[in-house]
Amino acid sequence: MPPPLEGDRPGCNPLQSCSALGAKESRVAQLRLHPDRALPAGDDIRAVARRIYQSTKGLPLLCMHGHVEAAVFADDEGFSDPAHLLVVPDHYVTRMLMSQGVPLADLGVPRVDGEAVETDPRQIWRRFCAHWHLFRGTPSRYWLEHEIAEVLKIDIAPGPDTADLLYDLIQARLAEPGFRPRALLDTFNIELISTTDPATSTLDDHARLAAAGFGARVIPTFRPDALTHVNAGGWAGRVRQLQEISGVDTGDYDGFLAALRSRREAFVLAGARATDHGHLTAAAEPLPPAEARRIYREACQGGVSAEAAAAFAGHLLFEMARMSCDDGLVMQIHPGVLRDHDDAIHAAFGSDRGFDIPVTAEFTRALRPMLNAFGRDPNFRLVLFTVDESVYSRELAPIAGVYPSVRLGAPWWFLDSPDGMRRFRELVTETAGFYNTSGFVDDTRAFLSIPARHDLARRIDAGYLARLVVEHRLSEEEAVETAADLAYRLPQQAYAPAGAGAAGRGDAGTEVSGLG
Amino acid sequence: MPPPLEGDRPGCNPLQSCSALGAKESRVAQLRLHPDRALPAGDDIRAVARRIYQSTKGLPLLCMHGHVEAAVFADDEGFSDPAHLLVVPDHYVTRMLMSQGVPLADLGVPRVDGEAVETDPRQIWRRFCAHWHLFRGTPSRYWLEHEIAEVLKIDIAPGPDTADLLYDLIQARLAEPGFRPRALLDTFNIELISTTDPATSTLDDHARLAAAGFGARVIPTFRPDALTHVNAGGWAGRVRQLQEISGVDTGDYDGFLAALRSRREAFVLAGARATDHGHLTAAAEPLPPAEARRIYREACQGGVSAEAAAAFAGHLLFEMARMSCDDGLVMQIHPGVLRDHDDAIHAAFGSDRGFDIPVTAEFTRALRPMLNAFGRDPNFRLVLFTVDESVYSRELAPIAGVYPSVRLGAPWWFLDSPDGMRRFRELVTETAGFYNTSGFVDDTRAFLSIPARHDLARRIDAGYLARLVVEHRLSEEEAVETAADLAYRLPQQAYAPAGAGAAGRGDAGTEVSGLG
Amino acid sequence: MPPPLEGDRPGCNPLQSCSALGAKESRVAQLRLHPDRALPAGDDIRAVARRIYQSTKGLPLLCMHGHVEAAVFADDEGFSDPAHLLVVPDHYVTRMLMSQGVPLADLGVPRVDGEAVETDPRQIWRRFCAHWHLFRGTPSRYWLEHEIAEVLKIDIAPGPDTADLLYDLIQARLAEPGFRPRALLDTFNIELISTTDPATSTLDDHARLAAAGFGARVIPTFRPDALTHVNAGGWAGRVRQLQEISGVDTGDYDGFLAALRSRREAFVLAGARATDHGHLTAAAEPLPPAEARRIYREACQGGVSAEAAAAFAGHLLFEMARMSCDDGLVMQIHPGVLRDHDDAIHAAFGSDRGFDIPVTAEFTRALRPMLNAFGRDPNFRLVLFTVDESVYSRELAPIAGVYPSVRLGAPWWFLDSPDGMRRFRELVTETAGFYNTSGFVDDTRAFLSIPARHDLARRIDAGYLARLVVEHRLSEEEAVETAADLAYRLPQQAYAPAGAGAAGRGDAGTEVSGLG
């Protein structure tokens, strides 16, 4: 149980600065973001890094892959309260609290088994604030500080003593019209944001967005995972859904593929630029058609071994690559995470509640069949992500450094952090260069953290480039140009629309020469 | 063979400073520890690091896991000579000398095959000093310099020319009463030190210590490895020993478990807080009871396959976790080392003579059964160690960052070093935070090196925290508080006594808010 | 297709400085190497690093392992043109261009299938210059800038606008007599350079070199790979070649071994100091002789499984170690690369065209049989290389830190880079020290890049040592001595001639105490 917290402070104007707290001042940490935060130490490097960062900080944000729901923008309603905005849906936050014994139910994480969970957002917020010290040194702290100070314009840090005050301040801020999702798209300078949608999505929210003139700014991403892992619970039902929405008979394997192809077309029409694939491994080995048909048939009958299911998933990954060559959707692979490590948590709370743990990743052998078939196809674009840093220099950089279809995605998940981003550049650049990376991809469901994440990426890239400048390995002029490419031009190119062809994607001879 | 060394220098007062060496001065390196040693370079960071370090350097030492023998304190006799104190028993030192061709026998390492080894400590010391340059850049050098300068108060560095002088100086120092083990406990500011004892230990030395009033200061750790690896030579004999000391019939598997349980109780009564488990892998998969019984029966009959033995070891690891939930002993796992890589060295010198080489470690899948069963049990505490750095960010930090029972131990063995400690914080903190680590664990058998190791850990943590401060990711006030937690409060909590319950261990809502 | 390039600039004297370009000046980057390049940032460290580097920069170059052809020195002809000197043969350069869609054929890479490739060196050079920005942050850029500025004495950076000018300037320079290979040996201060030669080489070029007085300066290395992988295409033909050149009947396994032994003798007579082995894994497990004979017999008949071929390769690696104990040739192992990942590129262009991708490496178990048999043999010397950085601290440093026969080679291939070299020292030194490493090994086929590579290694080592000095972990005097050992004395020792015996190799008691 958390320590007893003080009650509300009624005499305090919640939107006033914390200096108004008088006697409490000594325990209330002032929150001020330093302009040099996350830039490297050392006068020489920092001065250069500061100049490079200044040149990119104002560039528009391209959010080419993430998990904010389309409905958020289609509905454009205000956010309900601090807890349900910043704590409950953020698995980084709830897992850290869990790690020190705060039960997920006490944090309001909804259960799938019908048991009760905390419903009072203020209680949830207090529990979060009581454990604020746990986040020291973590990116969650970095995002949350940025959200509170920069986005919500409040200069008080969370903590046991500020929980209620901060709750009230945030709640008041969220009621302002400028804090509706669409308004924030402008505030955040977001040029484009991509949602992630199941293959069976009706894309209705995106249709509403298109009708409201947001069709080019909020686009879908095709995610077929729920259909490709044939031994996951409820698969048959989802295949029936696929048949319904596509109007294609999924009774056999060929129909299943045709239905997937048809959904991809619908996504392309709705503005999609990419697909997304979460698999346990990167295996992408095609099966003989007869074998694929047999496994599909058996899966429909409900009896397929784990081995067959894994082989079929790898086969479908290969087929998806083939489809990408046809329809131009950029393929994103996020492998190497063992989902739902704790069975009881999974049963009680459902998937992805913080107990997803990485395993060793392997790309060299796993991707070989796919890259042999499509790796030099000018219409194929593959963006690779990992949470296993040992593959950066060993496998990913060498692969991206030779196959023209491959770009390396930004540091993913646990690695989306200051030091994680720095290590990525250090381990990848010398073999793959800068121009075989995708530029920054935020991959978050925490909408309010998006500016913080892009801003941090620009700071870390500025710091890395500044080191190259100070070590006389790159001119400052080139560093400034490269920084802008990483922040803006490369994601634009890497996810160029399906119709843009090879040139739009920066292939063969197309110069990436900065924004100027 | 080492180069010829000069004889004794009779006219020289060994306790005098080396400046008295006159003409030899140019070849005798003065040994002076710089107050800023191991703090990061750069004026800005170093200034902050210095302040943080100042705030922790005087804190008492908690040595929650190590390998100094209880007899050392029970007997409280003076150390015999420099070689048998600093060279012969230190496998880091003997392995480095071995690596450049100095035979272990020439270093006085005792043989188990009865062959002769060097017995003259001065000769051993000379061989060590002749190769002092080999230790450049290694932690052994760091410890040894600290031991000589800070503990022994001698300002001469080892080297071919100082061997005899230094030998005499150290020998003279060791004869002083202040250099007896119990006196050094005070000198070193050691509040508590834990030994490591086989499950079959009589704990007589600990009884003698308790009688002398040292029972709470020197405590045992329960190490059952010699009993859990059923195909290791001499296993049956050790099981008979277990039966004798426990008074429980070990004739079958259930008796064996009961005997282990009984020994754990005896350890708890003697003050133990933890168990320790060295396994080739972290596998902790329970067997069906009938299968466990069968393997045990076959092992008693002397015929068990390597596979069955490994499965049984993994099963017992799981059972030990279950017992920890009952008796509250903290469970420590040290996996991933292939012991006794060189068969001939093993045959001649016995185990652990420097030829132990790490292999790839895997935790995500290996620990899943154990964590599913006990990972959220408030009475279970698991501390994980590794010598495979690739698992820090990939597996260990995500596991410790969500399972409330898990803490990450300090960098172990080869990684117990300045850069090793720094990388640990860099790779772990962003996902697991600071408060899911155990704080510093020295894990050494070199008693005189203990202050050096704790001091270095405080310096490296100060340096890491100072970087966060200078990069404006943490306030200096928080950094100072965190540094004290890492140095003192976290090990205290992580290894809280069995009776302390969840609160003493810092679980659910218990604040860790610094020492102040 | 590359962007349109401007034509020649006829009025421009190609050997004049680029400041003569007048109006073009703003787009033509001046190329000036900064004296502090690649030294660490920070005034304190850099000042120390500069002094350490100054002490080693003038030492002679020992190129103990590389891939420059003996014929280059035997023929001593001038280099034909910039493209065929700096682009076409450098797989680092062609792979990066390939990764952004420039076909290998457009870069003049010769095809083995008879199809046409670009033959105009100026066109190739233009394509390379048009993509110069791709090399930002890569070691290729570092080498190329050094080659252009320091070796060719031209102060213009490559780029779309300078392609033709630079081509003409380089072409003019290459025509000068001082740019013949033998002259460059002097210019580069190369004391010794080792080529790599198939076991079936006639060594004719080396004989010509010996006749010309270059026998001790350009020496061969014995590479038997083409004979040890029995299921590689054309193996039988190469075995017949072996029989011819050795005069030993290779009809059975024993004859095959005898023929290999005979070739090793021929290499030793020609001055060879080492062998080189590129295997997919480091497995070195001996087979029962009958089994080895059986596989060899089946291989001669053309029908051997992949498993049997792999087992035979591991067996031969073990046998080669045994032969090294006899003839004293230093054994080098370069494992862990999956060659020719793209089948179509392999079929069209042959082996090693940039599509070689690393896989996980494993040394602890793989080398155990070899190290058990020969690891403490005073006549055996094994130098290990890797492209999997995760084994540095986990396996390689512990192995080299105890087995007297083992030295760790310099960072290899993709890791032969500024940050790669730095990480090597950081990850290896604390366990293995400096004196269990081989010193710098350039391993390049780009002759003109050799001074740049050695110079960079000296800079990075100076930077690493300077950090130890500034962190008060090493005295500057020791750092200077160690730097010279790393640059010169250690490679000299690690590859001491077969006849030099243990002493020459720095074993047992032989001091490495700097050059002074």
UniProtKB/TrEMBL annotation, chains A, B, C:
It comes from the Bacteria. Transmembrane segments: none annotated. Keywords: Isomerase. It is an enzyme of class 5 (isomerase). Pathway: Carbohydrate metabolism; pentose and glucuronate interconversion. InterPro entries: Metal_Hydrolase, Uronate_isomerase. Its EC number is 5.3.1.12. One of its GO terms (biological process) is D-glucuronate catabolic process. GO terms for molecular function: glucuronate isomerase activity. It catalyses: D-glucuronate = D-fructuronate. It holds the Pfam family UxaC. Belongs to the metallo-dependent hydrolases superfamily. Uronate isomerase family. This is Uronate isomerase.
